[in-house]
């Protein structure tokens, strides 16, 4: 394992020149200055900082703060007038530059890790935690450290464990997390790879030992994300060129194009619940109490596997992980044990009243595909229960979700509660009204309650007969985004536990 070493301004300048991104420099007399901090966050700046000016919302005040704290040079797409004259390096594309700089500063830590990348519209975080459970059982048997994970739920890198608010971090944070993992003597890392990460170069330069591709449907289409489905789709496909072994779901929409794009990987294996010709074919799925049992046939084995995490749809995620773990030559005993015990925080967490009349499931489902799979699966698994849906949509992004989620919830639920879900700068009432028209079109009654806790409380208190509450979008997150700030709040799990306890007391 290579020890961290620091580079000079001149070396960074030369790196960007070789990358074809260098536009203009003003670094005379500073080439030998050693850089010990590389950041775009002015709060993190200190002595010997190379500061990166990035983002459409960047303000010169951030650069001034960084300079006051000790920044000795900045990298930007344009020069700034400052009270203090400091060296700068101008580049033609700051996002491409960030990935190159991050890999250089942290010395490409992914090269010494076994990295599983997971892409697709739905199921990334569940698959990441399935894979982590499998790998961790394997590592424990060898007396080694548990694996790192970078997901939309949380991040663990051997040094920090924090709640996540973005699927794939910016290149700087990403490489730092991987470096922390390497320095902590971690061997494996599992990470979600978002379309935004691929489009905006956060994972540039990396390779994935295994890349799981789960599925694709319309999502993240807005002026600040992807302009249309083609942009979203083509961004997702970029992962294959950075992958050694692609693991592809043959049941995904647009599979012909996906398989064509997957040729960019060094190798490709397939999995399916529908096509027996897949390299890993899942069949004979059945629910037995709280367990889901299914069989998997491949060229090397034909065996039964068990999941204890609720949701029949999770078999698809587990099948992808079986294929990926097999590609990494992880012994099957650990695949069996890992999948059986696997849990994903805030995913398919089930809570029930003492009389079992009210069952609440907390899940992160937030797009059309995840809603369709969740609602259809729950209707099948709980045929005697009426579904009540509690959800919202984020502000100023993924507008198509409002139509899709409103329509799906309206089709399956006997009532919908519309509430806050990271509204940002958009009024919650406006978002809820936008969704409500699609709920109403399905002749489903709805109620708008901005406060999530109040919405959950009302749904539990109003429950009539056997009721299945599907509380989606936020999982175990403990913050809501209002404006540009994340405001602390109880998680959906906290609310459910509290109000189910009150329900039990009333019975």
Give me the secondary-structure topology.
Blueprint: E1 7-8, H1 9-18, E2 22-26, E3 34-35, E4 37-39, E5 49-52, H2 60-68, E6 71-76, E7 88-91, H3 94-106, E8 114-119, H4 124-141, E9 148-150, E10 154-156, E11 161-163, H5 171-183, E12 188-192, H6 195-199, E13 208-213, H7 229-237, E14 243-249, H8 255-262, E15 267-272, E16 280-288, E17 291-297, E18 302-307, H9 314-327, H10 332-341, E19 349-352, E20 358-363, H11 368-381, E21 386-391, H12 400-412, E22 415-418, H13 428-440, E23 446-448, H14 452-461, E24 467-472, E25 479-482, E26 485-488, H15 492-506
Parallel strand pairs: 4-5, 5-6, 6-7, 8-12, 8-13, 9-12, 13-14, 14-15, 15-16, 20-24, 21-22, 21-24, 22-23
Antiparallel strand pairs: 1-3, 2-7, 9-10, 10-11, 16-17, 17-18, 19-20, 25-26
Describe the structure.
The protein is of the alpha/beta class and 507 residues long. The protein has three domains: 7-106, MurE/MurF, N-terminal domain (Udp-n-acetylmuramoylalanyl-d-glutamate--2,6- Diaminopimelate Ligase, Chain: A, domain 1, 3-Layer(aba) Sandwich); 109-341, Mur-like, catalytic domain (UDP-N-acetylmuramoyl-L-alanine:D-glutamate ligase); 349-506, Mur ligase, C-terminal domain (Protein-Tyrosine Phosphatase, Chain A, Alpha-Beta Complex), CATH 3.90.190. It is built from 15 helices and 26 strands. A hairpin with a 2-residue loop joins strand 25 (479-482) and strand 26 (485-488). Helix 4 (124-141) crosses helix 9 and helix 12 crosses helix 13. It is globular. The mean pLDDT is 92.
């Amino acid at each position: 394992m290579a020890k961290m070493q620091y580079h000079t301004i001149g070396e960074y300048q030369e790196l960007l020149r070789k990358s074809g991104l260098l536009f203009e420099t003003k670094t005379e007399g500073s080439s030998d200055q050693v850089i010990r901090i590389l950041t775009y966050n002015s709060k993190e700046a200190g002595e010997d900082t190379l500061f990166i000016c990035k983002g459409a919302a960047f303000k010169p005040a951030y650069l001034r703060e960084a300079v006051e704290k000790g920044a000795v040079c900045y990298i930007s797409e344009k020069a700034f007038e400052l009270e203090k004259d400091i060296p700068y390096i101008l580049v033609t594309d700051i996002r491409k530059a960030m990935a190159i700089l991050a890999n250089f500063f942290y010395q490409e830590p992914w090269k010494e890790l076994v990295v599983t990348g997971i892409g697709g519209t739905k199921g990334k975080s569940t698959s990441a935690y399935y894979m982590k459970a499998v790998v961790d059982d394997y590592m424990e048997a060898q007396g080694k450290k548990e694996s790192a994970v970078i997901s939309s739920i949380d991040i663990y890198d051997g040094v920090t464990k924090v709640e996540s608010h973005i699927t794939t971090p910016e290149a700087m944070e990403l490489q730092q997390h991987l470096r922390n993992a390497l320095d902590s003597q971690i061997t494996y890392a599992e990470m979600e790879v978002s379309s935004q990460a691929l489009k905006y170069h956060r994972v540039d330069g990396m390779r994935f030992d295994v890349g799981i591709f789960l599925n694709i449907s319309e999502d993240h289409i807005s002026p600040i994300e992807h302009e249309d489905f083609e942009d979203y789709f083509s961004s997702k496909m970029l992962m294959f060129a950075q992958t050694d072994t692609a693991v592809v779901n043959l049941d995904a929409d647009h599979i012909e194009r996906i398989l064509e794009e997957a040729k960019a990987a060094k190798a490709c294996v397939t999995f399916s619940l529908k096509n027996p010709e897949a390299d890993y074919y899942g069949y004979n799925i059945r629910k037995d109490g709280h367990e889901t049992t299914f069989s998997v046939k491949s060229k090397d084995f034909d065996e039964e596997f068990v999941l204890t995490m609720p949701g029949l749809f999770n078999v698809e995620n587990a099948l992808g992980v079986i294929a990926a773990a097999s590609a990494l030559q992880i012994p099957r005993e650990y695949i069996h044990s890992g999948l059986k015990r696997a849990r994903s925080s805030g995913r398919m967490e089930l809570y029930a009243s003492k009389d079992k009349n009210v069952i609440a499931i907390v899940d992160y489902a937030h797009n059309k595909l995840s809603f369709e799979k969740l609602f259809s699966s729950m209707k099948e698994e709980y045929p005697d229960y009426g579904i009540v849906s509690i959800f919202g949509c984020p502000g100023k992004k993924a507008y198509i979700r409002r139509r899709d989620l409103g329509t799906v919830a309206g089709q399956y639920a006997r009532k919908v509660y519309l509430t806050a879900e990271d509204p940002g700068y958009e009024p919650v009432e406006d978002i809820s009204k936008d969704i409500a028209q699609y709920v109403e079109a399905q002749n489903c009654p709805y109620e708008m309650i901005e406060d999530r806790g109040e919405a959950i409380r009302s749904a539990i208190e109003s429950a009539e007969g056997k009721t299945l509450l599907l509380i989606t979008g936020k999982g175990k997150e403990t913050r809501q985004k209002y404006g540009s700030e994340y405001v602390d709040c109880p998680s959906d799990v906290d609310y459910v536990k509290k109000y189910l306890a009150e329900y039990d007391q009333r019975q």
